[in-house]
């Protein structure tokens, strides 16, 4: 009903708007007075976390993309090797698991059958399983050794938005907690990242305040057949998520690529006026990534692409090559997906609406897939 949608035309728009709150709520109670992490709710003994020699993340759909991003944070902050695998592929290849393996199962609903089967397999092999889940008491957390709940609140729209942002927050928290328990980072460094995380909710809010041009662009591109997405580093999974959203909602052919792979195939797809959305890494710090991305944008533009560039405020270098420029607030590189994903959600939602699609209930899809 209209009342349930809180005045928004769809649950999806309501849930996109709720993201600053969802992000803040997922941090709530998990940071102590001194700014350190307090995650006692993760009931896996610290010794076990110290002894873990591998992290394996299993998930499906949008949650899988959260896992891909988590890998960058986990490996960078903890130096523990981390694999990310589609839950539906995981157990069938006889993965190597033992009590030193920490498996993280990410699921909004907690009922996705592929993810459940993956975690059952992991536990049978003796691995410990931590669930990251948005639904209290659902099957996946009940069958896991421990759970860290995301506090997105109920997500009704089939395509995941606010749950995804909170999955990212939860993954960052787990990564930092592992770093803390293992002494991989000192307390001050961890506090600094926690402070950055605490400021993110406001950045997401600011992104939401500047979305009108993104909606206009979506309306202008609604007649297109294909949209490509490019990213690098943590922007690569964001590109995959942007493409997934277009498939789910707009029923358009959309693909996400790692920008470095362009020359190995995807650049052959570029033709006149093809929209290519590019998620640009921050120009600060890891500027090598930024420079490489600027070259990629130049290359596709020289071949006729219509470039939609998502870049950090103050990134002047990309301006000459952007047919459409979407600016997001500057945040630390690893946390960038929390702000760069939001315009892609809005873009997909508006495209879908313009094309006359039902955004909350896309054809052929279900909110939670309880069959394998
Ligand atoms: C379905 C939904 C997606 C979701 C995926 C995984 O395909 O349509 O939005 O990302 O399931 O769901 P889960 O509940 O496990 O996160």
UniProtKB/TrEMBL annotation:
Superkingdom of this protein's organism: Bacteria
First-to-last residue of the parent protein present: 244 to 615 of 615
GO biological process per UniProt: carbohydrate metabolic process; fructose 6-phosphate metabolic process; protein N-linked glycosylation; UDP-N-acetylglucosamine metabolic process
Primary location group: cytoplasm
Assembly with partners or alone: Homodimer.
EC number of the protein: 2.6.1.16
Location relative to the cell: Cytoplasm
Active site positions: 367
Source species of the chain: Streptomyces prasinopilosus
Class in the EC hierarchy, top level: transferase
Function: Catalyzes the first step in hexosamine metabolism, converting fructose-6P into glucosamine-6P using glutamine as a nitrogen source.
Name of the molecule in the record: Glutamine--fructose-6-phosphate aminotransferase [isomerizing]
Cellular component terms (Gene Ontology): cytosol
Reaction it catalyzes: D-fructose 6-phosphate + L-glutamine = D-glucosamine 6-phosphate + L-glutamate
One GO MF term: glutamine-fructose-6-phosphate transaminase (isomerizing) activity
